[in-house]
């Protein structure tokens, strides 16, 4: 036990001997949060739509005025030539075009002259359609009742506008931004944890190359104690990174995790074990620090991107989404998202079992590779 404690102190001194390492291991989680804030913190709930009106009737103007009265919704009149630029440059969330004959269609009860253009998908268009189409349906109903009589339609519309019933609205807090920000921050934290674990495990190869490892083995210290001490130091750094990130999100940036602190820590602690296991596998399959660096870049960054740590997995092709199911990072994020949705640990036993299975598998692979390697530089 004394040997392991001495090795832990030695590894910690080696790890934090350079100030740059302190920044990497302890300050990097702050960077993860700042990147997430840049991605999601600056988002606004206001939507901006361009409006093109080719209809000569008065109902197009009335509909545009209705859209402008919706909270967090702004309309700007643009020309046909500006549509492509406005949409593709994301200056606007979309463009609504009222074609000629819009008012006439309402009088007949057959509205079919409104076109909605957007590249942001249902997240934006569904919101607009829920208001716009309902309003148009009401007008079309009045048109059918007026049987094409413009004067009667206008009278009915005026009465509709001055109706006595009132609608009371209550603003609810949108938790989606906080959830996205939290998952994004943890996604970047996952990358940082894997790179930190790999850098710490690289100490094994570094000490083999400078012969420190073999001098240690000439003492009562065994290879098994050496690896155990490295794992312990690795886990200490991982736990510190997780704690810093979760505490900063909760108590400094006041971002609601939508997950109890303890549960989020447990999930990330399990992933810490996975990160250490992956780093040991990389060491086991590397015969030099150069090979280790190449293997680390080949494994960590691609799997982090494929698992959806940098962007929502839903935006990736279906084939890639299926591949991500074989990655521990994806299961970690899925577990956290399920907890945000209100799931309990008991209902997520399969996710937790899979995460533990990943950790066990990586450690078994590392142990097997170390035991089969007869090179004098091998671990066992």
Topology:
Blueprint: H1 2-15, H2 19-41, E1 47-53, H3 58-68, E2 73-77, H4 83-88, E3 94-98, H5 102-107, E4 114-117, H6 122-146, H7 150-161, H8 176-209, H9 212-217, H10 223-252, H11 261-284, H12 289-306, H13 318-324, H14 328-340, H15 349-372
Parallel strand pairs: 1-2, 1-3
Antiparallel strand pairs: 3-4
Describe the protein.
It is a single chain. This protein is mainly α and 380 residues long. The protein folds into two domains: 238 residues, no CATH class; 115 residues, abc type-2 transporter like fold, CATH 3.40.1710. It is 67% helix and 6% strand. The protein has 15 helices and four strands. It has a four-stranded mixed β-sheet. β1, α3 and β2 form a beta-alpha-beta unit. α2 packs parallel to α10, α8 packs antiparallel against α12 and α11 runs antiparallel to α14. The protein is elongated. It starts with a helix and ends in an 8-residue tail after the last helix. The C terminus is likely disordered.
**What fraction strand?**
5-15%
Largest sheet entry: 4 strands, mixed
SS-based structural class? mainly alpha
Mean pLDDT: 79
What is the approximate shape? elongated
Q: How many structural domains does the protein architecture include? A: 2
Number of strands: 4
Number of helices: 15
How much helicity do the residues have? 55-70%
Task: Provide the low-confidence segments as ranges.
Answer: 374-380
Taking Cα atoms only, what radius of gyration do you get, to the nearest Å? 30 Å
Provide the spatial order of strands within the biggest beta sheet: 2-1-3-4
Report the end-to-end length measured between terminal Cα atoms: 19 Å
H/E series: HHEHEHEHEHHHHHHHHHH
């Amino acid at each position: 036990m004394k040997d392991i404690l001495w090795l832990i102190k030695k590894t910690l001194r080696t790890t934090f001997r350079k100030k740059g390492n302190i920044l990497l291991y302890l300050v990097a989680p702050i960077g993860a949060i700042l990147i997430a804030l840049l991605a999601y913190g600056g988002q606004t709930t206001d939507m901006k739509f361009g409006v093109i009106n080719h209809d000569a009737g008065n109902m197009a103007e009335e509909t545009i005025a209705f859209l402008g009265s919706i909270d967090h919704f702004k309309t700007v009149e643009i020309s046909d030539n500006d549509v492509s630029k406005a949409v593709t440059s994301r200056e606007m969330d979309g463009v609504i075009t009222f074609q000629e004959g819009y008012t006439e269609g309402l009088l007949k009860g057959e509205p079919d002259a409104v076109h909605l253009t957007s590249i942001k998908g249902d997240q934006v268009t569904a919101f607009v359609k829920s208001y716009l189409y309902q309003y148009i349906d009401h007008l079309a109903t009045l048109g059918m009742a007026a049987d094409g009589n413009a004067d009667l339609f206008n009278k009915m519309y005026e009465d509709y506008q001055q109706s006595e019933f009132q609608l009371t609205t209550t603003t609810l807090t949108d938790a989606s931004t906080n959830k996205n920000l939290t998952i994004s921050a943890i996604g970047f934290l996952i990358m940082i944890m894997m790179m930190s674990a790999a850098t710490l495990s690289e100490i094994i190869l570094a000490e083999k190359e400078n012969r420190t490892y073999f001098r240690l083995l000439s003492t009562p210290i065994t290879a098994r104690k050496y690896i155990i001490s490295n794992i312990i130091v690795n886990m200490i750094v991982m736990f510190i990174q997780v704690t810093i990130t979760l505490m900063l999100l909760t108590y400094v940036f006041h971002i609601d995790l939508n997950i109890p602190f303890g549960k989020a820590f447990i999930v990330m602690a399990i992933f810490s074990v996975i990160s250490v296991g992956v780093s040991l596998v990389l060491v086991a399959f590397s015969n030099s620090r150069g090979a280790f660096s190449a293997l680390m870049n080949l494994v960590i960054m691609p799997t982090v991107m494929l698992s959806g740590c940098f962007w929502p997995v839903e935006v990736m092709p279906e084939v890639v989404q299926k591949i991500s199911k074989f990655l521990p990072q994806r299961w970690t994020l899925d577990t956290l998202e399920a907890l945000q949705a209100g799931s309990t640990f008991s209902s997520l036993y399969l996710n937790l079992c899979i995460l533990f299975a990943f950790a066990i598998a990586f450690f078994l692979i590392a142990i097997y590779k170390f035991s089969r390697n007869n090179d004098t530089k091998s671990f066992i």
